[in-house]
């Protein structure tokens, strides 16, 4: 595709994604177990009189939940794009290589053993995610380590961390009641105050990710070329993995262990706009936010009056997609 056509395609895709993001956000705010009219939403936004029930639903339930979906989707999608780029591995993602599980174990331990220090949960999630990212980074440096080996090692780490979470729950059975939704990934009951610090971390992480897209493009040329251009590849790779851990850990701290967002979204974005990370990273943020909001909306309304945690719905979508990626990359010799 010639540069001019590619530029027009990227502008069109970006416009469509932004329109879809705004549209699905408005729909998600309006619909749920109790519907709110568009007139009531506009009235609240403009300061006009609105019923107390609608005001309570919007301010205490819908706005925090939709904001959580937007933040988690953007963070996990960008984390996935960063991980796939720095590891040069199309099968990698925050959940696949164990980063989400590492963050989840840290949050569960903090919530179980230090329940009065809930404000430290985002930092605990970051610490757990960063430790996992460091382990994966060390493995990726191994001579002759294949891309599939890194993924399998990440799955093994996820299994170990899952066993750790089960151990915490056995030692503290009451924690299961508080953590059941967290373990499968869900946004019900998210409070506005629980989004303040994670939201700040995610906002800072997204800005840094966009600033580092040029470095990602250089790394995509190969380690030898990047070194020749004066880039400290290993240092940058670990730093960007740490940034991905910050984003994923912050999302896990309030959304639970949401899977496959960071795997699916970057692939779809690259299919639509190519591999230039200066476009892929910011567009992944918008697409990921819209994707999670849409999935959470479906989880709320498709099975009404029952609600399915959004993490379960994403597992049904992401599992087959992961199998497809394995088969596809095996055929082209990428694993």
Textual characterization of the structure:
By secondary structure, the protein is mainly α. It has 14 helices and no strands. Helix 5 (121-140) packs antiparallel against helix 6 (147-171). It is globular. The mean pLDDT is 85.
Q: Low-confidence parts lasting 5 or more residues at pLDDT below 50?
A: none
Overall pLDDT score = 85
| Total strand segments | 0
For the record, give the distance between the C-alpha atoms at the N and C termini, rounded to a whole number. 27 Å
Helix amount, in percent? Answer: over 70%
Taken as a percent bin, the fraction of beta residues is under 5%
Structural class, by secondary structure, is mainly alpha
Oligomer: single chain
Radius of gyration: 20 Å
Overall outline: globular
Along the chain, the helix and strand elements come as HHHHHHHHHHHHHH
| Number of helices, where a helix is a run of at least 4 consecutive DSSP H or I residues | 14
Outline the biggest β-sheet: none
């Amino acid at each position: 595709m010639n540069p001019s056509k590619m530029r027009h395609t990227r502008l069109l895709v970006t416009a469509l994604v932004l329109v879809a993001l705004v549209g699905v956000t408005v729909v998600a705010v309006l619909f749920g177990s109790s519907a709110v009219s568009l007139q009531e939403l506009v009235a609240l936004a403009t300061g006009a009189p609105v019923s107390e029930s609608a005001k309570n639903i919007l301010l205490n339930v819908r706005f925090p939940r939709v904001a959580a979906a937007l933040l988690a989707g953007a963070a996990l999608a960008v984390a996935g794009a960063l991980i796939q780029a720095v590891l040069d591995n199309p099968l990698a993602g925050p959940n696949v290589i164990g980063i989400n599980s590492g963050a989840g174990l840290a949050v569960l331990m903090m919530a179980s053993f230090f329940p009065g220090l809930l404000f430290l949960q985002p930092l605990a999630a970051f610490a757990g995610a960063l430790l996992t990212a460091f382990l994966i980074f060390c493995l990726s440096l191994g001579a002759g380590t294949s891309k599939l080996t890194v993924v399998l090692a990440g799955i093994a780490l996820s299994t170990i961390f899952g066993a750790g979470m089960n151990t915490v729950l056995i030692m503290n059975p009451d924690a299961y009641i508080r953590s059941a939704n967290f373990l499968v990934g869900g946004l019900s009951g998210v409070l506005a105050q629980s989004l303040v610090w994670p939201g700040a971390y995610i906002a800072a992480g997204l800005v840094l990710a966009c600033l580092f897209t040029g470095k990602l493009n250089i790394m995509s040329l190969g380690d030898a070329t990047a070194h020749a251009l004066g880039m400290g590849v290993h240092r940058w790779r670990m730093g960007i993995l740490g940034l991905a851990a910050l984003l994923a850990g912050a999302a896990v701290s309030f959304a639970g262990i949401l899977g496959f967002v960071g795997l699916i979204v970057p692939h779809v974005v690259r299919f639509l706009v190519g591999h230039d990370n200066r476009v892929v990273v910011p567009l992944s943020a918008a697409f990921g936010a819209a994707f999670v909001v849409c999935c959470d909306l479906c989880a709320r309304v498709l099975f009404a009056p029952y609600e399915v945690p959004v993490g379960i719905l994403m597992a049904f979508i992401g599992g087959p997609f992961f199998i497809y990626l394995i088969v596809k990359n095996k055929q082209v010799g990428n694993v």
